[in-house]
Automatic annotation (TrEMBL):
Identification of the protein by name: Diguanylate phosphodiesterase
Keywords: Cell membrane, Membrane, Sugar transport, Transmembrane, Transmembrane helix, Transport
Organism encoding this protein: Photobacterium damselae subsp. damselae CIP 102761
Domain EAL residue range list: 422-673
Membrane topology field: Multi-pass membrane protein
Tagged with keyword Transmembrane: yes
Family matches, as InterPro entries: Cyclic-di-GMP_PDE-like, EAL_dom, EAL_sf, PTS_EIIC, PTS_EIIC_3
Domain PTS EIIC type-3 residue range list: 1-379
Transmembrane segments: 21-42, 62-81, 88-107, 113-132, 153-173, 254-275, 287-307, 313-338, 350-377
PROSITE patterns, per the entry: EAL, PTS_EIIC_TYPE_3
One of the GO biological process terms: phosphoenolpyruvate-dependent sugar phosphotransferase system
Keyword Phosphoprotein listed: no
GO cellular component: plasma membrane
Superkingdom per UniProt: Bacteria
Length: 673
């Protein structure tokens, strides 16, 4: 596997995608917390002690919400892709997160809340995975066609069992570790003031961050010791004139953590200066203000740097080079040592000047930033050149689908590709959610000879708050956001559910469902389709899947396999919009279709000789394929007469019936109820 392939695989991994996304979704928390911290520092300088204490405490409280939100967002996403109840996933992962955090003493000292990002992610992932596995057991199975009240027993039991199992395993591991007498420390003994140990500390901090673990928290004992040594050294310098140490607590903040671990302010500026992708630049502009105050989670998880074999290299290299440069500059006297202890969120240049008391401190920071840009540049260009993307998944409310299991997912690449289009699409989807609901209409397909309805096509419609019915003009927004698989599966589930009571009395009846190419090509499409049908009383031969030529163009081999799998189940496969593509004849020779649907655009030209001749050729092509032929959009006597002369038996259109709700079809006795 090449490096590009490895990076591509990592970038498209749905779990890495989830981690990237949830950190971006929690970005407002970072912004608000940073604003509160800055207000607290400014208020303290101004002597406004009450305001300083209040905003400082609020900032701490808000910052502690970050891991909790990460846990909620990730469990929501995993519930979506694993198709498990979101309420179960969130409740279980949150309880596990709190209990295990308490058990392992991973609670913030400042605010008594869990503060481990790694545990927030791990508890959400393991909880959702356990729930997914448990749902295969009948006792825990939640029926998607039943209400939450009817499912309450299953929901409570699966939550309780999952929590007990997870906490039980954690307890066992905790007891095992406590029972072992460790004669060594996993982490090395480091001298906080040493050049070589300082380099090793910086390297270890970067390695932990490379795997999404906060290196500051893991190595906090070193930073705590260094803080004590620094304050004592500054006091001795002020009182007795002793030499200041080169390495101090702010040395890492001001010279190797400019913009956050990895000196990521250099990366942000590199993106702003050199990125070809507008979306990378958008990301950089978004996080620049945070980077100026040394907060870099959004950039670490947005590029991503975490788990990225390309960006990890400069992420480790830049701060180590910066350490050497800063240490050398201070050692040879070009820059005075840091003589004060400042807040870690102090912006660069300002912090360099205030920390050293000299303009040379700010210039040293500027040089380090420029060096960092140069070191990040070749690695970022490798990323930018290949436009390697990440699936960043936005979790929307699912109530507008009227199904607890449907989640909205958006596929975004290179942080947020086509950001403007995605935002427009998201606004439309959210507006649809707030102002109405999706419903299903059905349009009968008629046998010309018997005048009987032999099948119905499922059609998606939208009903707004005023009761007005709209056609699916919104599908482009769902396509833009990558929502079509979820929308299609909702249509499949809902239509099958609606037809279930009518299945037994209409054994030869077919329900035709149009499925988008994106959905057909999703992993395990046939398996998930069959799973839905098996939960109903419909037989597979009563179902028909309509596909378009667009699907055949995308992946011919995989499409052929899917068609065969559906037909082996007994599901009919129809080629929709036949005659509108550029390669219809080629597809007829390569695929076995049960039905061919001639597009209405050809019917509209039947008023001319050329249009009639073309239509006749298309019908003849369909007959050669040995498939049933149905003509869409028939509206007049002349159209029906010409079509019947060609031997076509089935039609669909306003001539017989418009799309209508299922209740109206039953009321007109078009099918037996």
């Amino acid at each position: 596997m090449t490096l590009s392939q490895l990076l591509s695989n990592l970038s498209s991994n749905k779990y890495l995608v989830a981690v990237s996304n949830v950190f971006l979704m929690a970005l407002p928390i970072s912004l608000i917390s940073t604003f509160c911290d800055l207000t607290a520092i400014f208020s303290q300088k101004m002597g406004w002690d009450t305001l300083s204490i209040t905003t400082g405490y609020v900032g701490q409280m808000i910052a502690q919400m970050f891991p909790i939100l990460i846990n909620i967002y990730l469990s929501s996403y995993l519930a979506s892709i694993k198709r498990i109840p979101k309420s179960v996933a969130i409740a279980t992962s949150l309880v596990v997160f709190f209990l295990v955090s308490q058990q392992w003493n991973l609670i913030s000292v400042a605010v008594p809340l869990p503060n481990s990002f790694a545990l927030a992610l791990l508890s959400a992932y393991l909880s959702c995975h356990l729930i997914f596995k448990a749902q295969n057991l009948p006792i825990f199975r939640v029926d998607p066609f039943t209400s939450a009240i009817d499912n309450s027993g299953h929901i409570i039991s699966i939550c309780a069992v999952s929590i007990i199992v997870m906490v039980g395993v954690s307890t066992g591991i905790h007891c095992l570790i406590e029972s072992i007498d460790f004669h060594f420390s996993i982490l090395p003994e480091l001298n906080p003031l040493s050049f070589t140990d300082g380099l090793l500390y910086e390297f270890l901090r970067g390695v932990f961050w490379s795997f999404g673990i906060n290196g500051h928290n893991v190595l906090h004992m070193y930073k705590t010791e260094l803080y004590s040594l620094t304050t004592a050294n500054i006091a001795d310098w002020q009182n007795f004139g002793v030499d200041l140490n080169i390495v101090s607590t702010n040395f890492y903040d001001f010279f190797t953590g400019i913009g956050g671990s990895g000196n990521t302010l250099s990366l942000v500026l590199c993106i702003l200066l050199f990125a070809r992708s507008r979306n990378y630049r958008t990301l950089a502009k978004t996080v620049l203000i945070l980077s100026l105050f040394n907060i870099n989670e959004p950039i670490l998880f947005g590029i991503p740097v975490i788990f990225n074999p390309i960006m990890i290299i400069p992420f480790l290299l830049v701060p180590m080079v910066s350490f050497v440069v800063a240490y050398g500059a201070i050692a040879i006297g070009l820059v005075p040592p840091l003589s004060t202890v400042q807040s870690w969120i102090m912006p660069p240049l300002v912090s360099g000047y205030l920390g050293t008391g000299a303009i040379s401190g700010a210039l040293l920071q500027l040089i380090i930033i420029i060096i960092g840009i140069g070191l990040y540049y070749p690695f970022f260009k490798f990323m930018d050149k290949r436009s390697l993307g990440v699936d960043v998944t936005s979790i929307f409310n699912n109530r507008f689908f009227t199904s607890d299991e449907i989640e909205a997912k958006s596929k975004l690449t290179s942080f947020i590709p086509s950001l403007h289009k995605n935002l427009q699409a998201q606004r439309e989807v959210e507006k649809l959610q707030q102002e109405g609901e999706f419903i299903l209409y059905f349009q009968p397909q008629v046998d010309i000879h018997s005048k009987k309805v032999v099948a119905m096509e499922t059609l998606l419609r939208y009903r707004d708050s005023d009761g007005n019915i709209r056609p699916p003009t919104f599908l482009s927004s769902f396509t833009q956001l990558g929502l079509m698989p979820e929308l299609d599966f909702w249509v499949i589930e809902r239509s099958v559910q609606m037809m279930t009571p009518l299945a037994e009395k209409n054994p030869d009846f077919k329900l035709s469902i149009n499925v988008s190419p994106t959905t057909v090509l999703t992993k395990d499409f046939v398996f998930n389709f069959a799973k839905i049908v098996n939960k109903s009383s419909l037989d597979f031969h009563q179902l028909e899947v309509e596909i378009t030529e667009e699907l055949l163009v995308q992946d011919e081999n995989k499409t052929s396999e899917i068609i065969k799998e559906l037909q082996l189940l007994g599901v009919s496969v129809a080629l929709d919009d036949f005659g509108t593509g550029y390669s219809s004849l080629a597809y007829l020779s390569r695929f076995e279709f049960n039905k061919i649907k001639i597009d209405r655009s050809l019917v509209l030209n039947l008023n001319s000789i050329k249009g009639q001749e073309l239509f006749s050729v298309v019908v003849q092509l369909g007959k050669v394929a040995n498939a049933k032929i149905i003509v869409e959009g028939v509206e007049t006597d002349d159209e029906l007469h010409f079509i019947s002369l060609l031997g076509v038996r089935y039609v669909q259109g306003f001539y017989y019936y418009k799309p209508m709700p299922l209740e109206e079809i039953v009321a007109q006795k078009l099918i037996e109820a």
